[in-house]
């Protein structure tokens, strides 16, 4: 990436008692991107955000903004603003006063303050609530006021810590769309923390998957889904069959693998393993297809159980010696007649992207 807006260079955070919050993180964030920090509880997402904001001083490494070392700067001296999980609005102030507060601190003249407050409220669709008390607002409305307050000072970067976690599922989905629209409209760099992979996949330009204070992979949502680099990422993003497969030879630039009878075909890249050598290969449940009849590429399987998922069925089946696989199949015709114990034939979709996974 040429000249990132923000660069974390070997950033390390060791807390009192020797807990490693961040273990030498390197991360470049581009101007104007929507970047999400994703990972399980305790992986270091919030610590990363707090280090960028300046609330937490790293115990090693540097934070650069536009190439300038901002590591020693206090939060309020950074052109960065944070939207907190609980919104942190001032309950004794009305909507307009909440939004205006930061402008007042920066000694912006009253007429300009009013204009900026009106523009920020307009951006979040809350112009009609300018004089409302924040205690009278719904969760979604408070979230919008918190966003307006954060963008009104035109930060270079907006940091969002689980900003939608207090909202119910329906409103959350609606706010995801609004957040993305707001970010593209402003062209401001957004860095968001979430542990919700669906949210991360639907909203982000790039996702940083974290695990144990380290970065496992940084990629676009589609790349993370199609080509997870490690077992951790593969099992964290969506559902993935992690199959131990033996290399069975090269054919027409494809590497053939056998996973307990299931045939896998992967474009040859790099050095091929030795014959019989084993690799972990990821196969998405929707890439395993069911056939009523046996064919040269199919593998016999026995249905173990079926879970109804609305328009799809999730089938657990057993192949080979005792390998369990998960299959997602549309609910239609013959599949709706399947039940536990049914013998079926399965094969992997030809155009499936089956990543070879690192440990
Ligand atoms: N102030 C602190 N003192 C000691 N340890 C801390 C402190 N803050 C965070 N940690 C530890 O650092 C690690 C990373 O914490 P962090 O809050 O960044 O994780 P997270 O990914 O944001 O988790 P969550 O999704 O639960 O908020 C955890 O092991 C946590 O217990």
Question: What is the gist of this entry?
Answer:
The chain has helices spanning 45-53, 95-105, 110-123, 139-151, 169-186, 197-203, 221-226, 231-236; strands at 6-14, 20-29, 34-38, 60-65, 68-69, 80-83, 157-161, 189-194, 206-211, 214-219, 241-251, 254-259, 262-267, 278-283, 288-291, 299-309, 312-319, 323-330, 343-348, 356-357.
Outline the structure in words.
The structure is a single chain. This protein is of the alpha+beta class. The protein has 2 domains: 6-236, Rossmann fold (3-Layer(aba) Sandwich); 241-357, OB fold (Dihydrolipoamide Acetyltransferase, E2P) (Beta Barrel). It is 23% helix and 35% strand. The protein is built from 8 helices and 20 strands. The protein has helices at residues 45-53, 95-105, 110-123, 139-151, 169-186, 197-203, 221-226, 231-236, and strands at residues 6-14, 20-29, 34-38, 60-65, 68-69, 80-83, 157-161, 189-194, 206-211, 214-219, 241-251, 254-259, 262-267, 278-283, 288-291, 299-309, 312-319, 323-330, 343-348, 356-357. Strands 6-7-8-3-9-10 form a 6-stranded mixed beta sheet, sandwiched between helices. Helix 2 (95-105) crosses helix 3 (110-123). The model has no long low-confidence stretch (mean pLDDT 92). The structure holds adenosine-5'-triphosphate. Adenosine-5'-triphosphate binds at residues 15, 19, 21, 39, 41-47, 195. Adenosine-5'-triphosphate is lined by residues 15, 19, 21, 39, 41-47, 195. It is a peripheral membrane protein. Residues 6-237 form the ABC transporter domain. This is ABC transporter ATP-binding protein. It is found in: Cell inner membrane. Its main location: membrane.
């Amino acid at each position: 990436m040429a000249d990132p807006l923000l660069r974390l260079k070997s950033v390390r955070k060791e807390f009192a008692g020797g807990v490693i919050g961040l273990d030498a993180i390197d991360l470049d964030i581009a101007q104007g991107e929507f970047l999400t920090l994703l990972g399980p509880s305790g992986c270091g997402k919030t610590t990363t955000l707090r280090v960028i904001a300046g609330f937490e001083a790293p115990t090693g490494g540097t934070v650069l903004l536009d190439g300038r070392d901002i590591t020693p700067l206090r939060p309020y001296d950074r052109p960065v603003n944070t939207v907190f999980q609980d919104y942190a609005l001032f309950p004794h102030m009305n909507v307009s006063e909440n939004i205006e507060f930061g402008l007042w601190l920066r000694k912006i003249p009253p007429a300009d303050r009013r204009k900026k407050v009106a523009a920020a409220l307009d951006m979040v669709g809350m112009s009609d609530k300018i004089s409302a008390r924040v205690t009278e607002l719904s969760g979604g409305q408070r979230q919008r006021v918190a966003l307006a307050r954060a963008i009104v000072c035109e930060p270079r970067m907006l940091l969002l810590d689980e900003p939608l976690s207090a909202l119910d599922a329906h409103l959350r989905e609606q706010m995801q769309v609004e957040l993305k629209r707001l970010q593209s409209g402003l062209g401001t760099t957004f860095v968001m923390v979430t542990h919700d992979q669906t949210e991360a996949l639907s909203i982000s330009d790039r996702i940083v998957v974290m695990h144990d204070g380290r970065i496992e992979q940084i990629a676009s949502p589609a790349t993370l889904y199609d080509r997870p680099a490690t077992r951790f990422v593969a099992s964290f993003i969506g559902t993935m069959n992690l199959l131990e497969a033996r290399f069975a030879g090269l054919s027409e630039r494809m590497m053939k693998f056998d996973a307990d009878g299931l045939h896998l075909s992967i474009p040859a890249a790099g050095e091929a393993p030795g014959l019989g050598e084993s690799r972990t290969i990821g196969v998405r449940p929707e890439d395993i297809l069911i056939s009523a009849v046996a064919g040269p590429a199919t593998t016999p399987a026995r249905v173990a159980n079926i879970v109804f998922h609305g328009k799809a069925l999730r089938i657990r089946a057993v192949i080979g010696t005792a390998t369990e696989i998960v299959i997602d199949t549309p609910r239609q015709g013959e599949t709706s007649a399947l039940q536990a114990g049914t013998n079926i034939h399965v094969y992997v979709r030809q155009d499936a992207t089956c990543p070879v996974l690192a440990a």
